[in-house]
């Protein structure tokens, strides 16, 4: 228990530092079906309510790691983040409620809490920063504690990079997640590092454009 408490205190400091890395400000952004870095135009904009889905590629895995020692706490070989997104405009960014799933895990995820996503255009490119908030997932850690980890504040999780012809774009995540709740006792470490390489699925090309 002393080890866990010491680890938790160190993890608080590490998690707090990582939470500020890459923080973005809102920008006027639209999801676009053609490769332009600005002024997508209504003819090429994604329709409001269109579903954006990111899934693990075959053979890939999502991992929760100890932020201090780098050891893997949980590994899932099937995971996705999916939700209907309201497209952006000259004054807003694309956003929506999304559902995360984690299955085929070394420690089964007993529940997953929905969250929100926003996509912010990266100036001068067809890429975008994906910001997440509210997501959480609960599982039993190696010490038998039921722990929920996730994002309890808006967090830039990684950059979306469009694929060839706008299909199969990638979202690579390597970011701190915070302890949201300890369902059994105080033994859960206070944060972890979520790593995953996701691929955008679907038949509609996806680029990120400044409006």
What does this structure look like?
Helices cover 9% and strands 49% of the residues. It is mainly beta and 211 residues long. Strands 2, 3, 4, 5, 6, 7, 8, 9, 10, 11, 12 and 13 form a 12-stranded antiparallel sheet that branches. Strands 1-14 form a two-stranded antiparallel sheet. The termini are far apart. The protein has one domain (2-210). A hairpin with an 8-residue loop joins strand 11 and strand 12 (170-182).
Could you tell me the radius of gyration in angstroms?
18 Å
Low-confidence stretches: 1-26
Helix content: under 10%
Percentage beta strand: over 45%
Structural class: mainly beta
Describe the sheet with the most strands: 12 strands, antiparallel
Task: Quote the average pLDDT.
Answer: 83
Count of spatially separate domains: 1
Identify the notable features of this structure and list them briefly.
211 residues, mainly beta, 12-stranded antiparallel sheet, two-stranded antiparallel ribbon, 1 helix, 14 strands, 9% helix
What's the short version?
This protein is 9% helix and 49% strand.
Map the helices and strands.
Blueprint: H1 2-19, E1 29-32, E2 50-56, E3 62-65, E4 72-85, E5 95-105, E6 109-113, E7 115-121, E8 128-133, E9 136-140, E10 146-150, E11 155-161, E12 170-182, E13 191-201, E14 207-210
Antiparallel strand pairs: 1-14, 2-4, 2-13, 3-4, 3-13, 4-5, 5-7, 6-9, 7-8, 8-11, 9-10, 10-12, 11-12, 12-13
């Amino acid at each position: 228990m002393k080890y866990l408490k010491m680890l938790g205190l160190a993890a608080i400091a590490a998690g707090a530092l990582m939470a500020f890395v890459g923080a973005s400000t809102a920008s006027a952004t639209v999801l676009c079906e053609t490769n332009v870095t600005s002024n997508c135009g209504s003819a090429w904009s994604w329709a409001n309510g269109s579903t954006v889905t990111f899934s693990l590629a075959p053979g890939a895995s999502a991992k929760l790691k100890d932020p201090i020692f780098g050891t893997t706490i949980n590994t899932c070989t099937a995971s996705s983040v999916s939700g209907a997104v309201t497209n952006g405009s000259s004054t807003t960014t694309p956003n929506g409620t999304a559902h995360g799933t984690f299955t085929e895990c070394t420690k089964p995820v007993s529940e997953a809490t929905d969250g929100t996503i926003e996509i912010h255009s990266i100036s001068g490119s067809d890429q975008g920063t994906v910001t997440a908030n509210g997501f959480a997932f609960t599982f039993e850690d190696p010490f038998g504690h039921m722990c929920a980890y996730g994002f309890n504040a808006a967090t830039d999780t990684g950059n979306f990079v469009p694929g060839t012809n706008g299909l199969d774009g990638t979202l690579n995540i390597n970011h701190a997640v915070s302890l949201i709740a300890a369902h059994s006792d105080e033994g859960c470490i206070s944060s972890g590092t979520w790593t995953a390489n996701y691929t955008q699925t679907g038949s509609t090309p996806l680029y990120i454009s400044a409006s």
